[in-house]
C-alpha cells in the first residue's frame, strides 16, 4: 500500500524581517511611508491559482495579493520592532477571504490594509468581517477551523497540484 504524502506550509517562512530588502525598507521608510508605498506602489492582484509569495518575491515582482502584501508589511514591522499581527478574515458580503495587518503603533491598535486604496493610514474598509485566524510572525492562532480551511483551500490545492502531495497542512 502506497503511503499518502502530506505537504506542510510553515507561515513563518513568509515572514522575513532580516531580508536585505525588508531591512532597507525599515531603515529608509517610516511606518506611514511603508504603508503608503505598499498600498500605492505594489500592485494588488489575485491569481487564478492562489500562490503565496515571500516578501522578497512580492517586492521584486511589484505586485501581490492580500496575503503577500500583508507578509511584506508584517516583516517590515518586525524589522522595526513594532508588535503586529496578520489578521485573516472572512468577508460574508464578498464570500471571500482577506488578510491585513494590525499594528500596535503609538499606543493604539490600528488596522493597516494595503489593498484598500481608499483607506488612509490606520483605517480599515467599512465592511463586515468574521475573524478566522491571526498570525504574529511566530504563532498561528486559528479561531474558526471551518473558515480557515475554506480560506486556504485555493493555496492548498495549488500546492497539492505542484508538489504531487495528497494534502497540505498550514502551520
Describe this structure in words.
Helix 2 runs antiparallel to helix 4 and helix 3 (55-61) crosses helix 4 (66-80). The protein has helices spanning 20-28, 31-40, 55-61, 66-80, 145-151, 153-163; strands spanning 6-9, 43-44, 63-64, 84-91, 96-105, 108-112, 130-135, 140-142, 167-170. 35% of the residues are buried. It has six helices and nine strands, in the order E-H-H-E-H-E-H-E-E-E-E-E-H-H-E. It has a single domain (6-170), classed as C8orf32 fold (Roll). With 171 residues, the protein is of the alpha/beta class. It has a five-stranded antiparallel sheet, covered by helices on one side. A two-stranded parallel ribbon has the order 1-9.
Please work out how many helical segments DSSP would assign: 6
Order of helices and strands: EHHEHEHEEEEEHHE
* Strand neighbour order, sheet with most strands: 6-5-4-7-8
Sequence stretches where pLDDT stays below 50 over 5 or more residues: none
Q: What is the CA–CA distance across the termini?
A: 28 Å
Backbone CA Rg: 16 Å
Percent range for helical residues? 25-40%
Largest sheet: 5 strands, antiparallel
CATH topology: C8orf32 fold
The strand count comes to: 9
Outline type: globular
Q: How much strand?
A: 25-35%
Class by alpha and beta content: alpha/beta
Give the rounded overall mean pLDDT: 90
Q: In CATH's first tier, which class applies?
A: Alpha Beta
In CATH, the architecture is Roll
**Number of individual domains:** 1
